[in-house]
Amino acid sequence: ELIAEQATKRTRLVALSASAERPGFARAAVRLFAELERSRVEPGRLAAALKRWAPEGSRGAYATEIAALYRTYRERLEAARLVDRELFEWQALERLRHEPHRWGRTPVFVYGFDDFTELELEALEALAERSETDVVVALPYERGRVAFKPLAPMFERLRALAGERVEELPALDDHYDPQSRVGLHALERGLFASPPPSGVEGAVQAAAAAPVRLLAAGGARAEIELIGAEVLALLRAGTRPGDIAVVFRDPRRYAALASHAFDTYGIPYSVDRRVPLGHTALGRGLLALIRCARPGGTAADLLAYLRTPGRLRNPTLADRLEAAVRRAGIRSADEAMATFEQLAGWPLDEVARLRTAESIADTLIGIAEARFSGPYRRAAHVLRGSELDDARVLDAVRSALAEIAAVARAGVKADLFALHDLLAELEVRTGDAPDPERVQIASPETIRARRFDAVFACGLQEGEWPAPAGADPFLADDDRREIASAGGLALPLREDQLDRERYLFYATISRAERLLFLSWRHSDEDGNPEARSFFVEDVKDVFGDALAKPRLRDLAEVTWPREQAPTEVEWQRAVALESPRVMPRLATRILTPALGEWLGERGGFSAGMLEAFTECPVRWLVERVLEPGVLEPDPQHLVRGAFAHRVLELTYRRLRGQTGSARVTEATLPIAEGLLHEALREEQAEFPLSPSETRVRVAVRRLEYDLLRFLRHEAQSESELEPTELELAFGLKDSSLPALRVEPEGIEIRGVIDRVDRANGHALVVDYKSGKNVMGVAKWADKGKLQAPLYALVVKDLMGLVPIGAVYQPLAGDDLRPRGVVDNAHKDELGDRYFRTDWKSPEELDAALDEARQTVRNVVSRMRDGEIQPKPNCCSGGTGCAFPSICRNEPGAAA
């Protein structure tokens, strides 16, 4: 592909210029070149034939460019002193033609395949005509049979070569199971025949049709499960696993689904499954390493590489790095590597080695070998089972990189981007090899040379089996016919495959000795109807109405009927579906010494903790008691709130330092705005609002806008109170105030008050809220809001001031008026910026504070009593349960 890409760049293209820009162009060109080499077509011969086919005009330009591409490709191969697989086979054939004695007298017996390429046929001819050995070719072929029509040209060519040495064997039926012989032999003889052979109609009765069973399902998964159930029944009846073949036209399409179903059912199986390199552990790590080394590598790429088995002796290092990366919002691989070096104490050198390597492919081979051998070093370990997949991955990677290195030494180098894309497209074989103790999931080509006790012909759908024809993107079959007629160059036709598909279906159904299952889908996974293959009708033509109705498994059947459940787990599911639904008993109380001990060790409670318990005890338990490690940065709204608090604190303090008063007025507003801008710039680095630089700029700009609006709102206030205490701590280490005690229980409350405004021995408690919505005092008890009233109690009990209000101040939104409770006897001091419903008498204010004391007593009592009642409707501000897997209570189940 690399040389084809180079040939494309070196060839002047006009008609093909648009196509050549597409990523799959070189790959398609390689397939065409391989086909030409298998047909032993030299560039000059192709150019001459295409010239006669299209001598001029737009088609002539198109033909000329195809010939030029092939010529340049071959020239670049020759210049690099390299050959591709087909050219190697071609040269080997020429060597055999010129030196047939080198073969010796070793006899050649060809059996098990019938789709010979031109090179293979010419090799057989060279051995038969020029060497001293005997060549025997065994073919499944009968003259006049529709099923063998695609083999006729090849048979005639070999028959001409053999002369009189052709032995045609009679049709036999002694290999069939005695009870199945009549039906299966009749199907083998009568399939695709019109009319059926004489005597078939009378011989084939219901008993004769019994070995042929039909399966129909809704969706691919249901089809695989139905097949798995039948296979499991055969195994339990004594059939050896290796005597069962499950045949798909393209097994790769079903390999993952079949593997999952058979593993679930405990069926031993083998499948030639091919997966992209990135779907394997070793391959995923190598591709991630390449992405780290090229520009744009991410922290996720580095983590993927570090988690390659064997890279880290202590895999928890990768977990610690991921936690650090997530918390800090690190995006690039280079930043993540620097963080890893700080955590581990040693550097990662693989990325630097790739970036500075003279031969990237050779360097990567060494890294791949080290990663593969890492888990097994000094263990003398014998690879088994899935461990063999890593060995296959290493072999495929080493082979591909060796080719890339060879091409690079010839001057065609692949950068890290091209290298990554080439390896990402590499397919690797995984899974167990065929074994007598494993059911074989295979293609018709794989099983056509042996027989099985039971054969499943699966995926019999229109458009799947028979497989649709695939035209060549460069030369369609009509073009090839015209080229053969005008230019004398006969290229293989690709579009008409029906005869070949008939033969493959015949080869599949004729492999069964005792049972044959035909399986199809009557709908897809979405319930849309699907048409079954007309091959099923061809089988029905042999048996008439004698075939039993198909066994069905509909799309809606999420479990098996209890009497048909293939495994114990499926039986349990069926029983569970039939049984009445039982809701699990929810835990409402935790009576463990650990929780009591934790509560006893608390030096006090914060208002935020008490509010969290009131909102949802389960969330409180997880976040405040269990305190799981957090792998994400702090939520933006929390960082924004802390950032706003800090900026306002600095603004007010500096305003007092410059003007003698922290109160914002119309006169001091310009100074306050300048101080706010200064504080924003100073503190921005300490408050990471987002890992994205773009989002940070937007978030800072939005916060700046909101805080400036708030300062202007403050300047318009008629309040006489002066902001005196900012971020006032109580009950904390090194704080000037002790904890607030709630008697007689002796409950201690500690925390930080955002702001206290006071004048004449009176005080207003202000608690900032970075959001838009705040609630009045009428809803405090219902919502468990305790911060503002508890802070008012601190002012009263610990500072000796008379609280005349406790409010929540929004910092965003259109309406910046605070909400809470304010004393209507002090309107002159407080100003007129409050809601009418928040004005209360001194008695009502005292009642609100007393209610807060009682709420604290109740909440702490419930904590100590172990109450853990889930509240999914209240959790996370009513947006849904924050921890559904722990809470295990559906929304709406509890108030």
Describe this entry's structure for a reader.
By secondary structure, the chain is an alpha/beta fold. The chain contains 37 helices and 19 strands. Strands 12, 13, 14, 15, 16, 17, 18 and 19 form an eight-stranded mixed beta sheet that branches. A seven-stranded parallel beta sheet has the order 5-8-4-9-10-3-11, with helices on both faces. Strand 17 and strand 18 (819-823) form a beta hairpin. The longest helix has 24 residues, at 636-659. Residues 891-895 have low confidence and may be disordered.
Counted by DSSP, the helix tally is 37
What portion of residues belong to β-strands?
5-15%
Helical fraction equals 40-55%
The global form is elongated
Class per helix and strand makeup: alpha/beta
What is the gist of this entry?
Helices cover 48% and strands 12% of the residues. The protein is an alpha/beta fold.
Question: Topology, please?
Answer:
Blueprint: H1 2-10, H2 17-20, H3 25-38, H4 43-53, H5 57-79, H6 85-98, E1 108-110, H7 118-130, E2 135-137, H8 152-162, H9 181-190, H10 200-203, H11 206-209, E3 212-218, H12 220-236, E4 244-247, H13 251-265, E5 269-271, E6 273-276, H14 281-293, H15 299-306, H16 316-328, H17 333-344, H18 350-356, H19 360-373, H20 387-409, H21 416-424, E7 427-430, E8 439-442, H22 444-447, E9 452-457, H23 477-487, H24 498-509, E10 512-523, H25 534-543, E11 551-553, H26 568-578, H27 593-601, E12 605-606, H28 607-615, H29 617-626, H30 636-659, H31 669-683, H32 693-715, E13 722-730, E14 740-742, E15 747-759, E16 762-769, H33 780-783, H34 787-797, E17 802-810, E18 819-823, H35 827-830, E19 839-840, H36 842-864, H37 884-887
Helix pairs in contact: 1-3, 1-5, 3-6, 4-5, 4-23, 6-7, 12-13, 14-15, 14-18, 14-21, 15-16, 15-17, 16-17, 18-19, 19-20, 28-29, 30-31, 31-32, 34-36
